[in-house]
Every structure is written in C-alpha cells, then in structure tokens.
Backbone:
C-alpha cells in the first residue's frame, strides 16, 4: 500500500510523490473510456442532424472501438523506444485533434473519422499508464497501483452517459466533443508539467519490424499468453453482460431504461470495491493467487446467473446481485492480471501492455458482438455466454500461474 508523502524515483532521477503520479495517470487513463461513453446519448441527435440511418451513425462507435484495439498495439512499443512521456503527450494531442474534428464535422463521414482519431489518441493513457507503473514499481507493488488506476476506467464510463445526455439536451451534441477537447487540453497540460520520464528509452529504431519482434518474443512466453488471454475472457464476461443486459431489462422484462442505469451503478461500485481490495492486499497475498481467486469468484457469480435465469422474470435483482459478485471478483483479478502481463519482460513492458490490451479488447469485442447477435427474447444467451467466458477465464488463469511459477523456480 502506498504511503502518503512517499516518493518514487524516475528514469531521469526526478523524485515524484506516489499519489501525485497516480493522479496524473488516472486522468490520462480516464479520458479514453470517458470519450467513448460520453457521446453515446448524443447518437440519436447526431443521426437526426445528418439525416442518416441508425446503422450509419453507429459506425462512430463501432469503428472507434476497433481503432482503440489497433492503436494499443503501437503505443507500447513506440514508448519503449522514445519514452513514455513523449508517447503519451503525442497520444493526447491526437485525442484533442480528433475531438475538434468531431465538433466541427460537416458530414457524418468526417464525424466518424474524427471519432476514430479521438479514440486512437485516447487509448494512449490506458496503455502507457500501466507501462509507467511498471517502470517505477516492482511486480507486486505495481498491482496495487494499477488497481487505483483501473478505478478511473469504471468511474469515467459510469458518469459519462449522464454528462453527455445533459449537454446534448441543454446545448447540443457538438458540446460533447468540445468538452472532450477541453478535457484533453487539461490532461495535456497536467502530463506536461507533472509527469517526468520514467524510462530510459532503448537505443533501437522505431520500426514495424522491431515492434513485431517484441510481440513475437512475448508470444513465445506461455505465461504472457495465459495472463493476456485470461484478461481477455475476464473482459469478455463483462462485455457479454453489457451487450445483452439492456436488451434483457428493457425489451424482455419491459423495465424502464432509468432502472437499468441505476442498477448498473451498483455493478460499477462493486467493481471499484474489488479494485480497492486488490490495491490493499495484492502485495501481501500475491499476484497469481489473486488472479486465481478472482477467476473462481467470477465463475461462481456467472454460475449463479445461469441458475437464476428463471427468477429474472420475477425480479431483475436475480441478475444484478450475482453480477455484483462477478464485478467484485473481476475487480480483484484484473489489476493483478495487468500487472502480470507487463512483468513478464520488463524491458519491453510497453509492448506487453499494448499487445495484451489488443488481445483483451479483441476478445471482449468478439464476445459482445456474438452475444448481441444471438438474442432470442430470453436471458439465456447472455447467461450461457457469461458462464462460458468465465470458465475459460479460470482455465487460462490456472495455465498462466502454472508457467509463471515454473519460470520463477527456473530463475
């Protein structure tokens, strides 16, 4: 656990307060998921403004999600060569540029392009925040720091839709993107003035061949593959819920959207509680054990949802109470999984963070698309999909921890 007033040394010899460092990384990390969620309530207004079909307007979301997945592959390896600070500043500048393109877009095509650019820039903080943590902390302490940063990825999306809805109603949808650009400027200034360089860049050219070489090195490590895929199925459990729960609540159970939104806050709060617990006890219990325990908890919660499907028709609490258990368990597991993947080879922690992020987001996106496409008017597709992903999450947790312990013994 981090002590108030304690400091850590960075690559250039600068001492920085630990809580100040975490705050800067939280801001840089939160801007990506915030921008992804804040414009969703504005989609109907955007559709009407440009007079396009709903499917066309939806491309502003789906293509930007793909852009985030692809961009995660590049920030890490680039930062391994030019430094975390420079790569992060560049990403935030790209984010600001994309926000402005969106705000002043004269057609839906330009808006979609702007969202792609904005998303590609916003993901920089999500990738590089983890790499910065690994630069200044050892393997065990990094899990605690990442747990605090992960909370930002929950709080931001939890608040963003409400903010976006209010701005759209009071001012108009373009205000959503102007807000994003303004926040981007604030984060840029904060990073520029408060974040020193945490890595002595490797003396290697930044080439595609070099990046691919780093990825190949990582993929040859069974422990890395196991932790990355375990994290992917962990996110897939959650994305399966996101893809189907609104449909189940609003269409199947005929509940108002506001009820779903309020109950989802409890799920977010449970995830944050799991993050907080991970931050407090991960170093003492150990990364591998926390990952396995979190995976077991996720399996238990998903199994309860499967068993309680008939009761969902009587009360949505039969869905949300076990989902709170799933969220809490994942909150304890995900920070440790992220800490594990970037610790396999600390020399290329940026590449590890980027490749793991791509694997995780890609797995989650496939799960969400699959579950969302097989709805049959019942909660069963969601429940079965979550149970399958949870089981695979546990399988890969056991696989990864086996090889991680073997590697420790070998050294």
Residues:
């Amino acid at each position: 656990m981090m002590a108030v007033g304690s400091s850590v040394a960075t690559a250039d010899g600068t001492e920085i307060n630990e809580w100040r460092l975490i705050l800067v990384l939280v801001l840089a990390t939160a801007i990506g998921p915030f921008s992804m969620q804040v414009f969703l309530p504005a989609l109907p207004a955007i559709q009407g403004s440009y007079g396009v079909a709903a499917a066309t307007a939806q491309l502003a979301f789906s293509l930007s999600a793909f852009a985030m997945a692809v961009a995660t592959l590049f920030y890490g390896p680039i930062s391994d060569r030019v430094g975390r600070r420079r790569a992060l500043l560049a990403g935030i500048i790209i984010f600001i540029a994309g926000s402005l393109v969106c705000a002043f877009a004269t057609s839906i095509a330009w808006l979609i392009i702007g969202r792609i650019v904005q998303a590609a820039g916003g993901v920089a903080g999500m990738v590089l925040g983890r790499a910065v943590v690994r630069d200044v902390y050892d393997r065990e302490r990094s899990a605690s720091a990442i747990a605090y940063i992960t909370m930002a990825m929950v709080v931001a999306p939890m608040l963003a839709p409400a903010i976006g809805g209010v701005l759209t109603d009071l001012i108009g949808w373009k205000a959503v993107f102007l807000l994003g650009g303004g926040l981007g400027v604030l984060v840029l200034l904060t990073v520029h003035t408060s974040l020193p360089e945490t890595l002595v860049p490797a003396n290697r050219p930044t080439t595609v061949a070099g990046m691919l070489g780093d990825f190949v090195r990582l993929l040859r490590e069974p422990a890395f593959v196991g932790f990355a895929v375990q994290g992917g199925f962990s996110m897939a459990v959650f994305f399966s819920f996101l893809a189907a729960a609104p449909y189940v609540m609003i269409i199947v159970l005929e509940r108002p959207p506001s009820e779903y939104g309020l109950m989802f806050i409890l799920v977010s709060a449970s995830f944050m509680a799991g993050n907080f617990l991970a931050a407090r006890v991960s170093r003492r219990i150990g990364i591998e054990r926390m990952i396995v325990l979190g995976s077991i908890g996720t399996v238990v919660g998903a199994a309860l949802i499967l068993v309680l499907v008939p009761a969902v028709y009587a009360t949505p609490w039969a869905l949300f109470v076990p989902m709170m258990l799933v969220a809490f368990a994942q909150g304890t597991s995900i920070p440790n999984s992220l800490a594990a993947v970037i610790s396999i080879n600390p020399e290329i922690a940026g590449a590890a963070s980027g490749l793991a992020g791509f694997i995780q987001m890609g797995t989650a996106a496939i799960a969400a698309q699959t579950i969302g496409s097989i709805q049959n008017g019942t909660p069963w597709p969601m429940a079965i999909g979550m149970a399958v992903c949870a089981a695979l999450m546990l399988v890969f947790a056991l696989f990864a921890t086996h090889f991680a312990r073997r590697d420790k013994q070998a050294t």
Remarks:
- DSSP finds 15 helices and two strands in the chain.
- The mean pLDDT is 84.
- The first helix runs from residue 18 to 38.
- Strands lie at 7-9, 15-17.
